[in-house]
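We modelled the chain as a single entity of 329 amino acids. Its sequence is:
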Amino acid sequence: MIEIAVDMMGSDLGPETLSEAVKNYAADHKDVAFRCFGDEKRLHPLLSGMSAVQIVDTQSIIPMEIKPLDFLRKKDSSMYKAIEAVRDKTCTAVVSAGSTGGFISGATILLRNIPGVTRAGLCAAFPTFKKGKAAVILDVGANNVNTAEDLLCFAKMGRLYAREVLGVEEPKVYTLSNGLEEGKGTDEIVKAYSLFKEQDFPGFAGNAEAREVLDGDHDVVVTPGFAGNILLKACEGTASLMNKLIKKAFMKSPITKVGYLFASSGFKDMKESMDYKKYGGAILLGVNGVAVKAHGNSDSYAFYNAIDVARRMAESHIVEKIGGMESHD
């Protein structure tokens, strides 16, 4: 039995939406139990009577912006208690749609890095041009500044994640840069490129430009967290813009509305291919525990998939494999 700790508070849509995801997941997976942390008065009407769910009452919520020391003072919060449950081994994984900064600080402080990991990285699976194929990109926001050695560590963890969780047999690994040629990019990118070559890193295929990373051929892309976070938000913004422009174009006149009826199946396939919600959320790789950060505005479908990511990571024993990754390859 896998038991997952869920921070039920702090998301944009509230515990009502997250509870729906928990109930649906518990109904579909009898081998998964939940420990749900939050305001018992709000959670009890939503989750009472479910044998697979235990409600743990908490007194506060981590705000969207919080400093690490302030997080440590919020020991009665739903996020702190949920992460603490993984630290204390009472739960296998933690999932939250609350504050990203709080979650990264809390997981890093309470769970600590796996020995040998220089920096934990926030890893996200991006939808690509090839339906059903994801691009693993890290770091997408756990750090602002990273060294070449951090990027090498990210590559090892990202490669393991792509192989063990997403089922990519021989992942191809790239460094995100502003050009394909060796020597392009910031100092840490150039140094990381040299490290990959010196170590004959398995699957290393050179630099990748941002316009290429979602073509379905780039399995793992490593980047410092600042650039990775900009890439993440740029992709989300572009997807949202394209969706609005397409809707606007087809609503222009009665003729374009009829045209949409003929093209609707194609646009449905496109929407499914580019739906980030099916990937659930980002994973903090490198800490001593499975930690999944769902998007703050996750609906029940997205949060259901975030829970599924946590279960699959736990079943793959990804934390233990990262701990032994020096001997893995």
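As a brief sanity check on the tokenised model: The chain has a mean pLDDT of 89. Residues 225-250 form the longest helix (26 residues).
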